[in-house]
Amino acid sequence: MSQFLIPGVAFATAACLSALGTWAMRRRSLARGFIDQPGGHKGHLAGVALGGGVPVVLAVVLPIVVGAFAARWLSADSPEWLPGEIEKHLGGIVDKTPIALQIVLATLLMCGLGLYDDARPMKARSKFAGQLVLAVFLVVQCDLRLLSHWHFVPSALLSILWIVGVTNSFNFLDNMDGLAGGVALIAAAVFAVTAMLAGQLFVPTCCWLLVGALAGFLPFNVHPASIFLGDAGSLSIGLLVSVFTILTTFADPAAGQRPFGIYAPLIVLAVPLYDTASVMLLRWRAGVPVWTGDRRHFSHRLVRRGMGVRQAVVLIWLATLLTALPALLLPKSDWLVATAIAVYTLLIVFLVGLMERLASHDEPAG
Known about the structure:
There is one protein chain. The chain has 14 helices and two strands; from the N terminus they run H-E-E-H-H-H-H-H-H-H-H-H-H-H-H-H. It starts with a helix and ends in an 8-residue tail after the last helix. It has one domain. By secondary structure, it is an all-alpha fold. The chain has helices spanning 2-32, 53-77, 84-87, 90-119, 124-141, 152-173, 179-197, 202-221, 230-247, 264-268, 270-285, 298-304, 309-324, 335-358, and strands at residues 35-36, 48-49. Helix 2 (53-77) packs antiparallel against helix 8, helix 4 packs antiparallel against helix 9 (230-247) and helix 12 (298-304) crosses helix 13. The protein has a two-stranded antiparallel ribbon with strand order 1-2.
């Protein structure tokens, strides 16, 4: 019962905190002139409030902090009214408290970095350096590593690359109303279910907190958006998604050790990672810095093809969902099923690329 009760409470709590916080943040941003003005490569026609990432982040980290300290207090006191279904998990939560607080710290620092960039745009090199420092902190200090059975150095380097890469993928993906938040919601929900099927509690609860926070925020962010995530939100969301993929156990205890589960993060995040790689390639070919904002993203090409903003965003949501759902089967898969899932994912990505090619005769991106 607690397997569903605790994640359910986490989702509802984060959704309420995020919705109320976003409403308050929007009013505060408009009152203080913290607004993203139109112009350049930006598609909105009027100023939109910034700072939406702050309530999203707080809706995730505050319940984690409160839950961690509540678990420590309850495990020491063991009140009679506490349900046994919850009491049996207190020890595990207490054990996870140090790493949980370190993740909270890194997320808040990433949010602060993005918030500063929203207020006073930083040089790309400085922003990347901050991301790299936080990634190294999580990998070295918290020992959050992909393929931890490898030697430390290659495992650590791969993990740092993954954290920085996914963080920037969501930063790049935040180019249209509701796009980054919706894709992150889908990815986090799939990781939550995967972790629950593997018998985990801490990781799916954290994932459901992120899903709830994004669910509370998205009504304010779908087109036409009344508030933006900003870098404070997109960078923090990317960081959390990358960390949750490392923490998730992509194995089914009943099926034994199946190696194909480790590919689940790549399958789930295939669409945003493809968008990031293709945009960087297009910018490189055009002779402009790869970190320069422009309108070369898949979403922009769809709009130039005649789609509305909402239609383009929903299409990318659906593409993400189509690649993400089969990843739930990977922990139980043999090589034949895993190969079929990989081919299926490549076909979805190929379809996305084909649609981009069909749009290539439209006016060039500026």
